[in-house]
Write a structure and sequence with these properties.
CATH topology: hypothetical protein PF0899 fold
CATH class: Alpha Beta
CATH architecture: 2-Layer Sandwich
Number of helices: 2
Distance between the termini: 31 Å
Strand content: 25-35%
Largest sheet: 3 strands, mixed
Number of strands: 6
Order of helices and strands: HEHEEEEE
Number of domains: 1
Helix content: 25-40%
Structural class: alpha+beta
């Protein structure tokens, strides 16, 4: 489960940035094309947060749908899969969103 390693990195970054202040909430953006399961991320976060001394912090996961631009006709294509096809039949896609994996904000108290 790679979510554990990802969560450890998130929690470590949050603890460093918080500089000893209480962490109330952490908001992350996760693209649906990253193969990261939000429920697994949440499960791991609760465990890692307790171990790192920020127990009780909430994790909010904003999922970002995959969006690409068809290079053949310039239309936008939306998909939750790491591949897709345009209505025109084109499969040469330039990915715009869906690969995000970042901390957006944290609320300190």
């Amino acid at each position: 489960m790679h979510e554990l390693g990802i969560t450890l990195e998130i929690v470590e970054a949050v603890v460093r940035r918080a500089e000893g202040r209480k962490v109330r909430r952490v908001r992350v953006e996760v693209g649906r094309l990253t193969a990261v399961v939000p429920a697994a991320l949440q499960f791991c976060f609760d465990i890692c947060a307790a171990e790192a001394g920020i127990e009780g912090a909430d994790l909010v996961v904003d999922e970002v749908r995959g969006k690409a631009r068809c290079r053949a006709c310039d239309r936008e294509v939306y998909t939750d899969l790491p591949y897709g096809a345009c209505e025109c039949g084109g499969i040469d896609l330039e990915w715009i969103t869906g690969h995000e994996l970042r901390i957006i904000e944290m609320e300190l108290g």
